[in-house]
Amino acid sequence: MRIGELAESSGFSTKTIRYYEEIGLLPPPDREVNGYRSYGDGTLQRLRFIQHAQAAGLTLREMGQVFAIRSEGRAPCLHVRELLTRHLLQIDRRIAELQATRRELQDLAARAETVDPAECPEDAICAIIVHRA
Fold first, then answer.
1. Can you give the C-alpha Rg of the chain in angstroms?
2. Which of 11, 23, 41, 50 has the most Cβ atoms closer than 10 angstroms to its Cβ?
3. What is the dihedral of CA 4, 6, 9, 14, to 10 degrees?
4. What is the pTM (predicted TM-score) of this model?
C-alpha cells in the first residue's frame, strides 16, 4: 500500500510516517518503479503498536528499544514490563504531587474568601499567596 493509504488506515499523517521511517521506528519501505513508497502489512501492524504504546505513555525511544529487541529475535515482554512499571511509578509520583498542589490551592482559595483586598498591605504583592497561617 502507498503512504496515503497507510496514513488513512493508521490514523497517522504521511509526515509522521516519514518521520518514523527517518528515526528507525519503521523499516524503509520498498520502492515501486515510479519511486513511490510501498508498504507491507507489517508496517500497519507497527503503527498500531506505536499508537497503543503511546497511549500507555511509552516514548518513541522506548518503542525503538522494543523493536530492537524483537528484531534480535527475542520477545520484548520483560523489557516492556519494566517500562510499564517505571511509567506507573512516575504517574504515581505525579499524582501525589498534583494532590499536594490541589490541597495547597484549596487552602489558598479558602483563605482568599476571607481576605479583604482593602486590608492588603502595600508592601505585599498578594497577601493571599504570601501569608501563611
1. 25
2. 50
3. -60
4. 0.76
